[in-house]
């Protein structure tokens, strides 16, 4: 298919009877990966056709600013249906790659615009990201075709459960946020930094502590299964995350910091 001749509307030109035909499907259609974010999958689709992300999306969605928003939180149902027509992927599968799927489990609601509990903000400015709201695992970038997964947007994520290494939130050379939609594999490496070009898949990394990745694994499992156990009693995950947020807020307050300092002193005295 010649993308330059594609229609901008969800449907193709009408047939002789005046009935709009569905758009032609993209030739290369890599399947979404487990836990992959919608932005990552769109990026891989664009790369498969040798197009920049903005150009690729313009063929399907017209002049909408798809990449000038946090599309993993804000991608309309109409756009989901359009993307499904172009790729053959169901609306349900597309919606499952977005962060609003966790509403009612992670928090009471996931805002399409503005901050949401436990979701790292991106600081979107046009197509640039000003805040370090997307984490990454250098090892995952080496051995997996995906560029971003939903656990990498969680504020409680500190480690890659698969490789048990600490996640990173910036380029080790220039400290720019991780922006895979603004880069592509090249002679410089698998995942070049969008700002300075250093290969992020070769970033130095540290092993995560067992307690850290095991605790994170429990939180991730609670979201996926839709249930967890608190003090041996089965619960929906929402009370767990509401309670953890309240606890974290209290500990980060001035009184909480003083309490932590006193407990630290007591523990050292006992040792």
- What number of domains? 2
Task: Supply the number of helical segments.
Answer: 8
Beta-strand segment tally: 6
The shape, in one word, is globular
Strand content: 5-15%
Class derived from helix and strand content:
mainly alpha
Can you describe what's shown?
- The protein is mostly helical.
- The protein folds into two domains: 3-202, no CATH class; 227-270, no CATH class.
- The chain is built from eight helices and six strands, in the order ααααββαββαββαα.
- It has helices spanning 38-48, 53-61, 77-87, 91-95, 138-143, 210-225, 237-252, 254-270; strands spanning 124-125, 128-129, 159-160, 165-166, 228-230, 233-235.
- The chain has a two-stranded antiparallel ribbon with strand order 1-2. Strands 3-4 form a two-stranded antiparallel sheet.
- A hairpin with a 4-residue loop joins β3 and β4 (165-166).
- α1 (38-48) packs across α2.
- The longest helix is centred in the C-terminal third of the chain and has 17 residues, at 254-270.
- The chain is globular.
- It starts with 37 loop residues before the first helix and ends with a helix.
- The model is unreliable at 1-9 (pLDDT under 50).
């Amino acid at each position: 298919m010649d993308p330059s001749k594609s229609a901008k509307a969800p449907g193709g030109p009408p047939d002789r009877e005046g009935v709009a035909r569905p758009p032609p499907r993209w030739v290369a259609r890599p399947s979404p990966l487990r836990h992959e974010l919608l932005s990552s999958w769109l990026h891989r689709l664009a790369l498969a056709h040798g197009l920049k992300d903005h150009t690729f999306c313009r063929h399907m969605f017209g002049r909408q600013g798809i990449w000038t928003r946090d599309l993993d939180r804000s991608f309309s149902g109409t756009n989901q249906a359009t993307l499904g027509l172009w790729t053959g992927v169901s609306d349900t599968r597309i919606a499952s790659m977005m962060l609003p799927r966790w509403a009612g489990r992670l928090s009471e609601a996931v805002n399409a615009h503005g901050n949401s509990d436990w979701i790292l903000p991106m600081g979107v400015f046009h197509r640039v990201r000003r805040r370090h709201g997307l984490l990454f695992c250098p090892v995952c970038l080496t051995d997996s075709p995906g560029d971003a997964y939903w656990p990498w947007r969680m504020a409680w994520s500190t480690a890659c459960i698969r490789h048990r290494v600490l996640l990173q939130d910036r380029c080790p050379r220039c400290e720019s946020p991780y922006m895979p939609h603004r880069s592509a594999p090249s002679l410089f490496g698998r995942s070049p930094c969008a700002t300075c070009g250093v290969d992020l898949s070769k970033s130095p990394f540290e092993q995560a502590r067992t307690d850290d990745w095991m605790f994170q694994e429990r939180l991730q499992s609670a979201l996926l299964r839709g249930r967890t156990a608190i003090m041996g009693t089965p619960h929906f995950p929402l009370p767990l995350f509401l309670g953890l947020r309240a606890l974290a807020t209290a500990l980060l307050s001035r009184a909480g910091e003083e309490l932590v300092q006193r407990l630290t002193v007591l523990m050292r005295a006992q040792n």
